[in-house]
Specification:
482 residues, alpha+beta, Beta Polymerase, domain 2, five-stranded mixed beta sheet, four-stranded antiparallel beta sheet
Length: 482
């Protein structure tokens, strides 16, 4: 058998993961037709082991295998031409281990790229380049955008990240919750959940239903807050200042309630391995419900106005469009995928019982433009409010403790932990060694998949539309710059 089949947050024996050849991997990828969510290396003495993790979204299963590269093997025939979803994965593997994927169509540095970067160049008298970054205004993180334009029209956008060099994955060899929740500052709950549930699986630690519900309440509040903030930012980028102000104010209602729950507007310190540190009693539950009713009313009113307003519609419709075919070939995930009618949502695909008890309905849009991404946020806010109300009702009669002491990690184990953050799937792969120590910690942010979606979205748009396109995705720099 070439693959171990497992599930989300289910520990397996790392030593039982099969070893196959790169050509067997190629044939299996053709036969299985599954989606890659992990493709990363680990040093094993003089050898390099490539781990490949595939998601079977229809069955809620995860397939894992590996390829061993001996010291004398410095290259292999690239998989990207046959499986475009692997384009960034192969670039990252090459950058980390210097094993070249020959004939890769875009083999450029992914993060370590500040010297002599080979930018794409176009020729012609009317062609000009526009460079943005790496120093941006306000709170935007460092990243470089290089536009190739003819007049006002964008023909190509090249995105260069990797200015921060944070060394996160090595730091996570000695992890803790405060580090995990700081990996991506606007996805505190999502990242902390992925880390905590992975560590609990590796240590056979069972947490209470109450703690699970509080985590998911916080996760959906994070989704609501960011989606509302993004709807406001989209409004601002098309000069609809009423929407910008209303949504910004409404977002504050959500994050201030999170402050009341945990002492942090972004839920820092809420989640620990073994459960949560702050409870939600009946009084707080009532406050949350009252706040959500107010938020829902405001969002309904403002969104409905914008979705009927010709000046808003004309700025969003057919702007920054990505086709379903392009999104599939690039391996898009999360709301970027769902806006192109691709039904990926790990809450439902991997059968999280706290969600599937009430619904398995994924919110989708079809047009793949700014308008679709705006409407999808609106739909997901409504859905998240419904879920939170369900979870709060389940808390009423639950008297369990919110935290337990975690067990020690198991030796020679491997786990894949997936959480559906507001951008999409957050994937943490954790491997322990013979002494139960963590020997490899691999992280994949949804932005890793979706940055090329932005590049495709702006093609043939006016350069003045770039801020609007960019904000409609709202991708993470630090989520990729690990």
């Amino acid at each position: 058998m070439n693959w171990i089949i497992t599930e989300n947050n289910k520990k397996i024996d790392a030593l039982s993961i099969p070893t196959i050849t790169i050509e067997e991997l190629r044939e299996d990828l053709k036969a299985l037709k599954l989606r890659p969510i992990g493709f990363f290396g680990k040093q094993e003495f003089e050898n390099v082991r490539l781990y490949v993790v595939l998601a079977d979204d229809k069955k809620g299963k995860i397939h894992i295998s590996s390829v061993l590269f001996k010291p004398d093997v410095k290259s292999y025939n690239s998989l990207t031409k046959d499986f475009p979803q692997l384009h960034n994965f192969e670039r990252e593997f090459y950058e980390d281990f210097k094993i070249e994927p020959k004939n890769h169509p875009w083999l450029k540095p992914l993060r370590n790229n500040q010297k002599d970067y080979p930018f794409f160049v176009m020729q012609g008298e009317d062609i000009h380049e526009v460079a943005v970054g790496p120093i941006h205004a306000g709170i935007i993180e460092p990243g470089h955008f290089r536009f190739m334009c003819q007049g006002e029209k964008i023909y190509n956008l090249e995105i260069m990240l990797g200015y921060q060099h944070r060394n996160v994955e090595k730091l996570m060899l000695n992890p803790n919750n405060r580090l995990a929740e700081s990996i991506c500052g606007d996805s505190v709950v999502g990242y902390n959940m992925a880390f905590s549930e992975g560590m609990e699986a590796l240590s056979d630690t069972v947490i209470s239903k109450r703690a699970c519900l509080i985590r998911r309440i916080a996760l959906e509040m994070e989704r609501i807050a960011i989606h509302i903030g993004d709807m406001g930012a989209i409004s601002g980028d098309m000069a609809y200042l009423m929407g910008a102000n209303v949504f910004a104010t409404t977002r504050t209602l959500v994050i201030n309630t999170m402050l009341e729950i945990s002492g942090s507007r972004f839920a820092r310190g809420l989640i620990d391995v073994g459960g949560v540190n702050f409870d939600i009693d009946n009084e707080m539950a009532s406050k949350i419900k009252t706040m959500l009713n107010e938020v829902l009313e405001i969002v309904h009113r403002c969104a409905k106005i914008m979705l009927k307003k010709p000046s808003c519609i004309s700025r969003m419709e057919q702007t920054g469009t990505v086709s379903k075919e392009t999104a599939l070939s690039l391996g898009a995930v999360g709301m970027a995928a769902r806006s192109c009618a691709i039904g990926l949502d790990s809450r439902f695909d991997f059968k999280d019982k706290y969600y599937t008890k009430y619904s398995t309905a994924k919110k989708l849009e079809e047009t793949g433009d700014v308008f679709a991404r705006f409407k999808l946020r609106y739909k997901e806010i409504i859905q998240s409010i419904q879920f939170i109300n369900y979870f709060l009702d389940e808390l009423k009669n639950n008297k369990e403790e919110i935290k337990t002491t975690p067990n020690d990690l198991s030796a020679n184990s491997f786990v894949v932990s997936i959480t559906e953050g507001w951008r999409g799937e957050i994937v943490h792969c954790i491997i322990t060694g013979v002494n139960s120590e963590i020997i490899r910690y691999k992280i994949k942010d949804p932005s890793f998949n979706n940055w090329y979606m932005l590049s495709m979205a702006v093609r043939n748009n006016g350069i003045s539309d770039f801020p609007l396109c960019n904000k409609s995705f709202n991708l993470s720099y630090c989520g990729c710059d690990l």
